[in-house]
Fold these 3 entries.
Entry 1:
Amino acid sequence: MVCFACAAALLAAPRSRAQGSLLQVDPAQTKIDFTLGSTIHTVHGSFALKSSSIRYDAASGAISGAIIVDATSGESGNKGRDQRMHREILESEKYPEIVFTPAKVKGVVTRSGTSNLEVSGTFKLHGQDHEFTLPVAVTVDGPGLQLSMHFVIPYVQWGLKNPSNFLLRASDKVDIDIHAAGRFENANTPNT
């Protein structure tokens, strides 16, 4: 779910910086929030970024990598509801990761201000792959970036169980909001 936009920032980064670039996203500065509406109340919660590594070569246009969210980290502040979410809906013991693999980007990042892009790729949730396009806002500040996006996951359509019961009718879609900070690194330079 997170930093699916990271790939977009790399693809549209200035050529001098993007050639052989690696985009690193800081998990400590990444916020992945979800909102699920229902007839009684709206549920708010969050997930944690597990890892993110996107490589982009401006010369060839090749992109590779993945953004991985820890499905087991999902929490809404209600222990019983969270246990049910992990046991019956996400089945996070069986499917502990949510993965986005970027394939292409539409749009260009400007050297200053905010740019709007679309990042297309494969979204793997609950063991199933789904083609997905994310709208991404990227703000470049020197070697750093701020990424933000809002998108809707049709989780019931994608085969997950709806948590509704006889008292509560939950939406069959969940809203996701992501805010992240990252930086460009030379892909040929080892991390220290």
Entry 2:
Amino acid sequence: MKKTLLLACVCGFLTALAPTLRADTFGANFANTVGESLSNGPFTLGWSFSVSGTINVTDLGVFDSGGAALTEVHAVGIWNSSGTLLDSASVGATAGGTLETDALGQTWLDTGAPVTLGPGTYTIGALWVDGADLAIFPGQLGSVTMGTGITFIQDQYIAGGSLADPTGTSGETGAYFGPNFEYNAAATPEPSSVLLMATGLIALGAIRKRARK
């Protein structure tokens, strides 16, 4: 009997604490498949956004115009509202990465860069040294759909030959969609998991009670 109760306890806890698997989705999905050339680089180009809940950023990506191979390595980063770099990666050319396609058929080149973002305001940016690789510019952007829990704020940019927090903005409702990210919502226990945890606690209590006797 003790072994049965102990097994129920262990199974209840392990199942309840196991994270719920969530599918990754893009922070921004839009219809453009071909970008434009940057003529006055280098710049860190990007956009600011807010997060309403807690999300797990699994990949940082760079726009891959028309699915063509990137010719440069682009440094990508995410900063918080205080200008602290939370995560960064290198995407494209010799940096490697995996081709991904968003819900609208847009191709991105992603690289693993896991980080958790809580509710707040953030900025994502990627370095464009010149116009060899194309990007989406404000005014060129067609329809865009933000991922669940993600709200677009405005475009962001800063001049310079190294990746930097893009603090400048023209206030455009469009954005410099060169960088993007994939994420999933932070896992929360399912009701059934909570029930299993309760079962585990009850079983543990029974074991301790029998042990006293």
Entry 3:
Amino acid sequence: MPPPGHTRAGPVATSNVSPAAGTYSYAITGHETATGFGRRDFPATMTVAVHGDPSIAANEVVLDLHFSDQHNEREVLGYVDESVALDYEAGSITFGPMTQTSEADYAPPIPQVVSQLRSGTSAAKNSDGSVGRTEDWTATPKGTEDITVEGRVAHCAVVEVDRKTRPGSSDQETRKTTYWYDPSRRLWVKWSVTMHGERAFPAFTFTYDEEFTAS
């Protein structure tokens, strides 16, 4: 299914700056917690399927993240020169009989990999074009680190991205993500996330927390 909010005319072109298409496996340690359902650990492995789509631009790729049968996410990344930015994200998380979904198209996109400190504000647009929430973000380079992947050393750029929703939206989120980005693969070989989210309903506020490292 093409990601909503990214309908564009014409076929997708192959970009030499985006990661190779395929399914990447990551070992993962961590957990997630939801109001009324308690905590559960993530499975030992998760996958990231990287592919193009006719509805996105030539310098964009789709990442389908499968954490478990109860937790799936989609991201659309844009590649410009040496930077990587999050153009779109969506998720579906199920606890018991309850499934919570979210979707946002970011304008401007939120940087994920940068060579120098950047900060700004992005509007998270819904599929109908309305603004669902507004996020302040800071992307901070943290130097480099070598990580051995499949017997080969990856010279990674380390970037920390902090995001926080401004007051006024029924959905509130704070998220800290650290990426270990391998320029040769044009993809992170490791990343860690600490996130807290809240969604206001008339009778209660649903909260969700996750903390994990995937490599």
